[in-house]
Specification:
This protein is an all-alpha fold. The protein has a domain at 13-111. The chain contains seven helices and no strands.
């Protein structure tokens, strides 16, 4: 009967995995699981080293999603295996997106250029002016109509 009871501080694997997915670079999932040392290292790595630390910490959190089965006290999580693998796969895609984002930011920082949309370069300003000149309010229409009928 003792083994079937939940121990009072049992952590949810669902919460652990969701925290790892969204806030893994900051180590929140490790703080939740009472792994204070790992969480602090991830937090300092992310905050202290910039984009390299974010990439390392994010990869670390994705690996944690797939490999960690117990909390810091050695107690097994309340299992939710399908969510674990779904979030792990989403984490892989999120990590690949982070690599692309940070890569573009690094390239633009090193080259000193950024990609912007400039309406003046693509003729957007001219299009907006032409459309605004063709818009006529009802009072102008009535005035022009009455003026042309009286002059004829």
């Amino acid at each position: 009967m003792e083994n079937s009871k939940k121990y009072p501080g049992k952590k949810s694997q669902l919460i652990y995995v969701v925290l790892a997915l969204f806030f893994g670079a900051f180590g929140l999932h490790n703080f939740y699981a009472n792994r204070w040392g790992r969480g602090l290292i991830q937090l300092l790595l992310t905050v202290g080293t910039g984009f390299v630390g974010v990439l390392v910490s994010s990869l670390w959190s994705i690996i944690n999603i797939f490999t960690i089965e117990t909390d810091g006290d050695g107690h097994a999580f309340e299992l939710n295996t399908p969510v674990k693998y779904i979030c792990g796969i989403l984490g892989i895609f999120k990590y690949m997106g982070e690599i692309v984002l940070w890569g573009f930011l690094l390239i633009s920082f090193l080259t000193g250029s950024t990609v912007t949309m400039d309406w003046h370069n693509i003729g957007g300003k001219q299009i907006i002016q032409e459309v605004s000149e063709k818009i006529v309010t009802p009072s102008e229409t009535i005035y022009k109509t009455t003026q042309t009928t009286t002059t004829n």
